[in-house]
Amino acid sequence: MQKDSRPTDVHSGPSQGAIDQFVTGMAAFWQPVARSEDVTEHAIHPVELLGKPIALARLDGVLTAVLDVCRHYQARLSLGEIATIDGKQAIQCPYHGWAYGHGGACVRIPQFPEGRKIPPAAAVPSFLVAETLGLVWVCLTDRPIFDLPAFPEYEDPAFRVVTLDEDVPSKTASTRMIMGTLDDTHFPWVHEGILGERDKPAPPDHTVARDGSVLKVSYETMQPASLSSGGTTGADVGIRYDNEVHMPNVIRLAKDTPSGRYIVWLATCPVDHKTCRNFWTFARDYDLDPAQDEAYRAFSTHVRQQDKPIIESQRPWLLPPFWTQIEMPLRPGDLPIIEYQKWLEELGVGGEI
Q1: What are the two backbone dihedrals, phi and then psi, of residue 15, each rounded to the nearest 5 degrees?
Q2: Strand, helix or coil at 326?
Q3: Cα–Cα distance for residue pair 298/352, rounded to 1 Å
Q4: Is residue 262 helix, strand or coil?
Q5: Over the stretch 263-306, which tens digit does the pLDDT of each residue have?
Q6: Is the omega angle on the peptide bond into residue 110 within 30 degrees of 0, that is, cis?
Q7: How far apart are the C-alpha atoms of 195 and 203, rounded to whole Å?
Q8: Cα–Cα distance measured from residue 260 to residue 271, given in angstroms and rounded to the nearest whole number
Q9: Rounded CA gap, 159 and 286, in Å?
Q10: Is 344 helix (H, G, I), strand (E, B) or coil?
Q11: Taking CA atoms, which of 27, 36, 210, 304 is between 20 and 30 Å from 59?
Q12: What pTM was computed for the model?
């Protein structure tokens, strides 16, 4: 009898090669690391991205991102303070007072005698940093593969915008988070009575296409009436979804409902290969009373809590390559996530195990 060669040990986790490939691949894209409002003046804000500790600060009002490790004896710079050196702000290490300006250049070593020149090697690595859509974004390489994502409803006065932050990072890969948000065939099972019904599990007819850096998915379906689908009671309502994955780490779900348009937008930060921090934003062009925001936030939190334990249970943490046959995606229902995963592998984010 021929031995079945398909892998069966899915709980051992990814290999170091797969982890290295994920980290290297994701490093070449813009990644969301913090809410803009959390990076305040006169304070250093620590974050972690793909295993790297990063210190964010606004030096003289200009955002900067440097490795959160002092060049001297590797103390965390984020434990220090913003100091003024020769009239300019700098990040000052709490251990011996070394200070770093824009670009990570060392601008002060208190132990040096007056007049001694600071060597260029005393600098700490710095990273590309940008600010848009209420978030701070960092890229660990000099040339991001794709531009920052679009979110037209974010600043559209016709929409009411609500944010949802998760205090505790999710114990899953950021690519798993995007895949889980893109996957609509779980709606009847995980979100029964909200986004689907178990006695109506048939998948919709998806249209999937690439457009520049965006994977576009469109389909029509029926959903129970809810805050996100037009009303809170009554029969199922017709919904049209026009979804966009801004590769590889941002997804925008646009729902056209009988009440208007409802947007689910997620930017997920890969803290490391099996942990992510999620930045959720929701927008609606109906029911615009600000007093309703908390109801929509509670609704979104409930849906999110239904997803969280299931996504965190998936193994291995990284998406296994198609060739391993660990996963068993089925067309036509899984077409959107098949195409998402295929593109990830082409971008060098996956492929190893």
Answers
A1: -75, 165
A2: coil
A3: 39
A4: strand
A5: 999 999 999 999 999 999 999 999 999 999 999 999 999 999 99
A6: no
A7: 13
A8: 35
A9: 8
A10: helix
A11: 27
A12: 0.93
323 versus 68: the higher-pLDDT residue is 68
Domain with CATH 2.102.10.10 in the chain: 29-139
CA 93 to chain centre: 29
Per DSSP, helices labelled H in the chain are: 16-26, 174-182, 187-190, 293-313, 335-346
| pLDDT, tens digit (0-9, with 9 covering 90-100), for 131-165 | 999 999 999 999 999 999 999 999 999 999 999 98
- Provide the token pair at 81: 């303070």
CB burial class (10 A; 0-12, 13-18, 19+) of residue 143? Answer: exposed
Look-up of token digits 């600098």? 123
CA dist list (Å): 101 to 93, 137, 236: 12, 19, 58
Q: Specify the fold of 152-346.
A: Naphthalene 1,2-dioxygenase Alpha Subunit; Chain A, domain 1 (3.90.380)
Is residue 278 a contact partner of residue 34, using CB atoms and an 8 Å limit?
Answer: no
Structure tokens at 19: 């982890």
CB 44 within 8 A of CB 147: no
Report the candidate in 103, 146, 100 with the shortest Cα–Cα distance to residue 127: 103
Residues of the chain with CATH 3.90.380.10: 152-346
**Of 204, 198, 208, which is closest to residue 184 (Cα–Cα)?**
204
In the sheet where 81-85 sits, what is the strand order? 81-85, 88-92, 99-100, 106-108
Q: Is 315 exposed, middle or buried (0-12, 13-18, 19+ CB in 10 A)?
A: middle
Note the pLDDT tens digit of each residue in 243-269.
999 999 999 999 999 999 999 999 999
29-139: CATH number = 2.102.10.10
> Which residue type does 294 have?
E
